[in-house]
Amino acid sequence: MQAFLRSILVAGALLGATPALAQNWAEAPRPPEGAAPNQAVPPLDAQGGYLTPNRDLSPAQTSWHVRAALNVAALGCRDALEAETIAEYNQLLAVHRDALAQADASVKAQFRLRHAAEWENEHDHAMTRVYNFFAQPPAHEAFCAVAHEVLREALAVKQEEFEAFALGALPRLEAPFTGFYRAYDQYRTTLAAWREGAAGVTLASIVPARMRMPLVP
Hints:
Blueprint: H1 2-16, H2 18-22, H3 59-76, H4 82-95, H5 97-115, H6 119-134, H7 140-155, H8 162-206
């Protein structure tokens, strides 16, 4: 009987220790930058780049996407440089008015050629994707920092050089978002490993090795 009671006490002690065993895996990894657990991330291409709305653009489209990104910054970057950002964006529209008008006309001509009677709907849909891309909250702070720099630099560019400037500016404006995507993909990998490990620890904790031994009275 004494041996039986000792076995019960050992089993109880093991079960009571289960929370301690769980301490190493109880807290799941969290999404980066306060992102949602179901955050959508674009797929990768064969070279490992994200298929964002800024891929495979003509020079005119690139210029227009830069303008869209800076428009998002002027509307949404509510930081210490807010007033400066708005003023510089309005100045950009004036300084590069002709270059931007040409880019707009060229982009719309491309949509007319590709989509015929549906070009306006397709154009609106495409531009909505671009605006939504640059308005993603998780990368907002980093994006605003880059946008401030790009705006200042753009004002010093000659009008005939704006298209060439945009080719280098767009990847910079996109980088905070692709950087976030990579961090989020790493989070999903870490979460999957955590779940696998947590499941193994849970099973081991529920049925300790000593509990599986026969009790001898």
